[in-house]
Each structure stands twice: as C-alpha cells, then as structure tokens.
Amino acid sequence: MLLIKGFVPNYLLLVSSLLLLAAPAEASKLESWKFDASQNQLEFTTDQGVQPKAQLVADPTRLVIDLPGVVLGRPMVSESVGGRIQAIRIGQLDRETTRLVIELVPGYTLDPNRIKFRGVTARQWLIQLPAPQPIAGVAPQLPTSNPSAVVVSTALGSSSVTAPAPPTPSSVGRFQHSAQTNLAAAQLATIEAVELDNSGTQLVIRANQPVSYTSRWDRSLSAYRIEITPAQLAKQVKGPQLDANSPILQLRVRQENSQTVAILVQPASRVQVGQVSQLSQRILALQLQRPQPTQTSPVRAIAAIPAAPSSPSNPLPAQIPRMPDGRPVVIIDPGHGGPDPGAIGISGLQEKGIVLDIGTRVAVLLQQQGIQAFLTRNDDRDLGLEPRVQMAEQVNAAVFVSIHANAISLSRPDVNGLETYYYQSGEELARMIHQSILQTTGVQDRRVRTARFYVLRRTSMPSVLVEVGFVTGQDDAARLSNPSYRNQMAEAIARGILQYLYRTAQQR
Questions:
Q1: In a designed cystine with 181, which of 115, 232, 401, 422 is the match (CB 3.0 to 4.6 A)?
Q2: pTM score, whole prediction
Q3: 232 & 339 share domain
Q4: Per residue, what are the HEC states of 206-261?
Q5: Rounded CA separation 96/219 (Å)
Q6: Which of 69-78, 407-416, 450-459 has the lowest mean pLDDT?
Q7: From CA 24, how far away is CA 3, in angstroms rounded?
Q8: % of the chain with per-residue pLDDT over 90
Q9: Does 135 lie in the same domain as 235?
Q10: Strands (E), 416-457
Q11: Whether residue 279 is found in the same domain as residue 372
C-alpha cells in the first residue's frame, strides 16, 4: 500500500522547525460518482488515470476502495442508500488518497470472489457487487426502504450534491455533537456519555446496550476515529470538561448516518493514542498516554540510524566504488508509522514494520559504502508527508527513496509483485533500483510506472517510491515475513542506489 532518517546536529536543527502543511495543490480529482442500487453498481470518474485498491472489511461489512493520488476537495460526502446497502461514504483518507466506502446493513456480507472491478478507461471504473447475503447466526437489520428506487448520483461542484455540513471548528475544550436518527430507538444502541476517567488516561464511551465498533487514525482530520454501529446519540450526551492540561485537544461526536456514531479524538501535543478496549459489552475505553519527562523528543529521535539488525548475508560487491567527489546524501523514507499501520495483509502482516526494517538495513548498507544515509523515521512514529519532503530538501539530498508495501483485497492472494514509481527526474533511478531487485530476489515484475505521489512531486531531487510486494499476496507475504528476505531486498535497493550515484558522478 502506498506511502514512506539523518544524524548530523545541524540537520536536527533544520528539521526541528518543520510543520505539517496542507494538501498538495497538484493532484488528480474525483470528478463524479454514481451508485445504482437497482444494479448494485458503483461508477466513478477521475480527471486522470487511477489504479483503485480495495479491501472487504467486516463488522459491519464494508467494501473500502482507495484511490491513490486522488483528492476529493470537499467535506466528506455521506449518502443513505437503503435495502441491504446502508450508505455510501466518500472522504479524504490522507493528503493523496480519496476513500470510497460502501457499507452494508449489519447482518449482511458480500462474497469477495464475486466483486468485479472493470476499468472502462484509466479514468472511469465500474464496480459490480453481488447481492448481499445474510451472515449465518446474525440477525439482519433491514430498514424499510425500496432499494430498486434508489439511485445516488453526485457530480462534484454541482448544485445537486447533498452532503452533511462539515464539523464546526471549535476551541480547546469544546464538546460537539449532533443527532440525526430515523430508526426506532429499540434497534440502536444509544451513546449516553463520552468522558475522561479520573486519571485522564482513558476516554470512556458508555452506551445503553451492547455495541460494536471499528477504529483507525484519520489522517485527513488529524484525529483518531471510532465508529460505533448500529448506534445513535442520546438527546443529551454527557461529555468531558477539557482544559489546557487535558490529554485531548478537541473531541467531536456526531451522527454520521442513520446507524453510525463517529467519535473523533484529536490528542494534545505529544499525547499518544493507544488501543480501544471493550471494558464490557456497553463500555469502550480509548487509551491516552502522556510521554515520560525523560523521553527523547520526536525530532531528535529521527536523527540516529540504529545498528544493523543483523550482519548482511551477502555484502555489497566490492566492485561498486565509493563516490569520487565527497559523500552524497541519500534520504531513505520508510512509509507510514505510529497509529498508521499502512497496509495490513495475510496473518495481520503490517506494512509499517516491514518497510522500517528494510529501510533501516538499506541505510546501514549505504553508510558502509561511504554514503550519508538519513532515515525519515527510525522507529514506530507517525510522520506527515511534508516533513519527509522537507528533510530531503534541507540536507540537499542527492536522491530520495520511499519504501512501501502494496495491498489489494485479501480475496486476491494471487496478486504479487514489485512496482516502482517515479515522477519526472526519477526515471533512471527507478529503473536501476527496480532491475536490481528483480535480479536479486526473483520477485514478480509489475513494472516501473509514473505516479503523482506527494513525496515524488514535491521533492526537487530524483525521487522514487518502491512497493516491495503485496502483504495480501500469498507469495509476497510469506517472503516479506522472513528477515533474510527483507535483508536481501535491502541489499538490492542499496545496490541500485549506488549504481545510480556512481553513474551520475561519472557523467559530471
């Protein structure tokens, strides 16, 4: 799945002032979308080519479709549908990814093998869904509506768009919620309170009956999102009193659709959001952790490259010379981190850990060859896209290499392989790294491609993004789970970088 360290004191002073900036000005846009409930078919069009990525998520069943390199350019759109498909939601997952979600009524699911994707063109896609089927042993909750009469069509920028108003900005400590329910209260759990416990280390959510939930980090809102469904808000929800010392900067609670309550938690500075735990069937608790006073600041922690996890099994060949004029700077960028795990694949394999291990090994190997190798992150921390770019700019890097792992639906373990992306000046670097990996690992070749990813467009030096394999692929997941293979992958990436640097140095 898509996305991306340094050790010189002067470099630390430079990156310490970096700020997370707004979404990029250049990006592909979602032009229109239409869901025809009578045909169970979603159609969408972008203004440039896009390669959708999809996964089927349970509890409740949702088909999640991500559009890399696409921006929505407006607040989240949420449309109720009816029948066995409850709603369509479209929003900005992160700065360069639009997410479409088709959510089924609780108690129903889809056969993933019968979900069909068809690219009419590179810009226009049709997704054909099979008829939703009841989940064995789960009582379905169908609303009383006629699915054959529902066609939702939205042209972005048109006056026909119907979308919920965006959340009203609030100051520190303000607690917001709105209720818009149209189902009988007996069918839904009612969220009665969202409060901090006495210790200030847990946000406790209380309902009047058992609840189910999903949670994730919402990069577009810089908040941790908890969705509870089927649920509604009480007419008066008891909320916490927040002040300047609270672990939460802002809390928003809202009714997103007829059956979903969303709780958005924006933590205060340096407060870490932990896991959601179910204390009882009716009570959820989100862990909030303040750093210890002696904890190293995030910027300083980025500086050091850890020792090699293990000695390279096949050291880089001696015939690759050191650079003839000084020590070039290379930025190695392991994607995701912190609350953002990236792609999650077979047996829970997480992208963020795989790419951090590979990236660290690449940096160590480059240093052994006389290169100044900086890592954008050297541990499990969250880092925005713009700081990654600015690190490369501030140290005048010769090249920028972002490392990621790919994903598709878990129902497609047959999809495996290496993809390498570049934008403008990075083509030669991309082809050298790509060829080195193919020769070293034997991974399936899914080609070198161009892409408008933020970190590629916004860096001035040759930049590439390497997708080392699919965590959802049967072959790739087994390989990427093996430390020896990750070391082999790191050697191949480092070799490609060195070959590129040497060639460009000889051409001067």
A1: 232
A2: 0.45
A3: no
A4: EECCCCCEEEEEECCCCEEEEEECCEEEEEEEECCCCCCCCCEEEEEEEEEECCEE
A5: 10
A6: 69-78
A7: 15
A8: 26
A9: no
A10: 418-422, 445-450
A11: no
Nearest CA to 390 out of 374, 404, 371, 372 is that of 374
pLDDT digits (tens, 9 = 90+) for 399-450: 999 999 998 888 889 999 999 999 989 999 999 999 999 999 999 999 999 9
Distance CA 238, CA 234 (A): 9
pLDDT greater at residue 389 or residue 80: 389
Are 334 and 264 part of one and the same domain?
A: no
Q: How far apart are CA 495 and CA 75, in angstroms?
A: 44
Helix (H, G, I), strand (E, B) or coil at 347: helix
* 226 part of a folded domain: yes
Same domain, 388 and 427: yes
242: left (phi over 0), alpha (psi -120 to 50) or beta: beta
Q: What is the CATH number of the domain that holds 241?
A: 2.60.40.3500
Q: Are residues 321 and 281 in the same domain?
A: no
Cα distances from 205 to residues 173, 189, 218, 223, 250, in angstroms, run 17, 12, 19, 17, 16
Give SS3 for 79: strand
Tally of domains in the chain: 3
Q: Do 362 and 308 contact (CB within 8 A), yes or no? A: no
Q: Which of 336, 460, 467, 457 is nearest to 23 (CA)?
A: 457
Question: Which of 106, 48, 44, 8 has its CA nearest to residue 303?
Answer: 8
Give the whole-angstrom CA distance, residue 204 versus residue 474.
39
Distances from the Cα of 148 to the Cα of 10, 82, 394, angstroms: 64, 9, 57
**Do residues 130 and 115 lie in contact, with contact meaning Cβ atoms separated by under 8 Å?**
yes
Give CA–CA dist 381/339, Å, rounded.
8
Among the listed residues 59, 68, 138, the one whose alpha carbon sits nearest the alpha carbon of residue 100: 68
Q: Which of 71-75, 117-121, 314-318, 361-365 has the lowest mean pLDDT?
A: 314-318
For residues 290 and 384, the model is more confident at 384
Q: What distance in Å separates the CA atoms of residue 486 and residue 354, rounded to the nearest whole number?
A: 8
Using alpha carbons, select from 101, 29, 100, 33 the residue that is nearest to residue 71. Answer: 29
199 and 74 in one domain? Answer: no
For residue 334, the one-letter residue type is P
Phi, psi of 390 (to 5 degrees): -65, -30
Strands 85-94 and 77-82, how do they pair? antiparallel
Contact 115, 63 (CB under 8 A): yes
Domain co-membership, 446 together with 331: yes
Identity of the residue numbered 51: Q
Which pLDDT does position 375 carry in this prediction? 93
Of 289, 316, 346, the residue that ends a domain is 289
CA atoms within 13 A on the CB side of 67: 27
- Nearest Cα to Cα of residue 393 among 303, 455, 453: 455
**Annotated catalytic sites, by residue?**
467
